[in-house]
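re: ur question from yesterday

yeah so i grabbed the chain u mentioned. its 297 aa long if i counted rite. heres the sequnce exactly as i have it in my notes:
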Amino acid sequence: MLLPCACSSEPSTIAADPVEPDQIDIIAAFYPLQFVTERVGRDAVAVTNLTPAGAEPHELELSARDAGRLQDADAVVYLDGFAPGLDDAIHDVGATAFDVTPFADLERATNSLHDDDGRDRREAGIDPHFWLDPLRLAAVGDAVAAELSAIDPGRAAEFTANAAALRTELEQLDVDFRTGLGTCASTELVTSHEAFGYLADRYEMTQVGIAGLSPDSEPSPATLAEVADFVDAHDVATIYYEALVDPSIAETVAAETGVGTAVLDPLEGLSDESAGDDYFAVMRSNLATLRTGQGCR
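ran it thru and got these structure tokens back, copy pasting raw so excuse formatting
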């Protein structure tokens, strides 16, 4: 029985493939969770991505029909707080949910502009973008394997082996990033949106976000001036923005400082504008973009 849900009456946003009788039916909140669940589960799972291509998970709105799908699935793989509409629906319908938060090692995001005494000028909330650090994503892959094993113990060895293979690939990606970004002229990473903090921390870079954690927030004139001063003072050559986000903020600072712009993909989802058809392809495209923008040898 479908329980009451604070959902819209619009048609379902979920485009689900048929689930075979021997498959585990999984709903993933957004693309990185779809990717890791598919890689760990392989043919044993049918994974439906709840966030349509080109949409923002933060803005996800579910229909009553979507809520029914949540209730019917074997598990909903999600990140608590990232898509509030989904969090509410999971609670309302009593869906079987697997929150990856405890395994993602989330940290509080900070803007790297400092007062003279070293204090951060602005401090944001918890940064959810753990998947931009390959090793954090590997840890979540291991946790997904354990969850799938609990649902289907007979295939536990298969899930564990798949997660180990994924970890090996992600560890190689980590080596590629560490090597590729190890000889850069600049380690100052100026972005329109503070989505790249984990990536910056892992590879010994400093992220300065113009708009903070939310891509929709509007920076004040004072913040724009601070970032422009930072760009000038640190000889920053490139300001990065996202393909699906209005580039005007990044372009404003770039025009003010006379530097270039480039696109980094935060990989919240894939679209026709993505520079690849899976997580690894887009991350390697990001690496190539960073090597050019940061003057890496």
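noticed a couple things. Residues 182-293 form a domain with the Rossmann fold fold (CATH 3.40.50.1980). also The longest helix spans residues 156-180.
anyway ttyl
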